[in-house]
Amino acid sequence: MNVIATELEGVVILEPKVFGDDRGYFLETWRLARYEEVGIRETFCQDNVSFSRKGILRGLHFQYPQTQGKLVSIVSGEVFDVAVDIRSGSPTFGRYVDVMLSEDNHKQIYIPPGFAHGFCVISDAATFTYKCTAYYNAATEGGVIWDDPDIGIDWPVEGPLLSEKDLQLPRLKDIPAEKLPRFEGGS
Fold it and tell me: Is 130 marked active-site?
C-alpha cells in the first residue's frame, strides 16, 4: 500500500494494492495490521454507505465533543473529498486537503478525529463508504458552511445541491472555540 502524507498532520491518502486482469480486480479495503503499520491505530466501530447523484455536496460535517475519525473510499463513481482542520489551537487551523476518490483510482483518505469532512459528486452518481472511529451522535453534530471564504475550498462544481441543514451552517470563524475540537499536539 502506498501512503501519501498531506500537509495536515494525521490526514493521509492511501493507495491500496489492486490485483486486476481482464476479468476485473481485487483489493483489500481494510486490514487491521496493515493500517496499524502505516499509523492508523484507531478502532473503527461503525461502517456507513452513502449514495448521491452528480452535483450533490455534503458537508462540511464534524462531531464534538464525541469526535469521529473516518476512513473514506468509493465503491462506484467519483467524488472530490475534503478534510478541514477545525481543531482550536492547531497550527493548520482552517486549512484543508482535497483528493479525488474514484472507482478507478481506488484511493482512500483517512481523516482523524477533530477534522471537518465534506465531498461533492463529480460522476453521474457515486456510492461512498466510510469506516468511523465513533458512533454517529446527532447531539454532537456540527458543521461549517461549504463555501466559507476563509477556508477557500476550490470545489469543482458550480451551484452544488445541498441539504437545507447544510445551507444553514456557520462560517468557521463564527463557531466559538469551546464548540470545536482542541488541538492536542502531535499524533
Answer: yes
| Regions of the chain where pLDDT drops below 70 | 186-187
The catalytic position among 35, 61, 110, 117 is 61
Phi-psi region of 92 (alpha: psi -120 to 50; beta: other; left: phi over 0): alpha
| Active site annotation includes 61 | yes
- Grid cell listed for 14: 492511501
Cβ neighbours of residue 33 closer than 8 Å, sequence gap 6 or more:
none
How many beta carbons lie within 10 A of that of residue 166, not counting itself? 19
Domain boundaries, the chain: 2-18+28-163
The cell numbers describing 183, all together, are 488541538
Catalytic residue among 64, 96, 110, 130: 130
pLDDT in tens, 66-116: 999 999 999 999 999 999 999 999 999 999 999 999 999 999 999 999 999
Q: How far apart are CA 71 and CA 108, in angstroms?
A: 7
Q: Do the bridges between strand 108-111 and strand 24-27 make them parallel or antiparallel, or are there none, so unpaired?
A: unpaired
- Output the pLDDT for position 186: 59
Q: Which class is 2-18+28-163 in CATH?
A: mainly beta
Output the nine-digit C-alpha cell for 133: 472511529
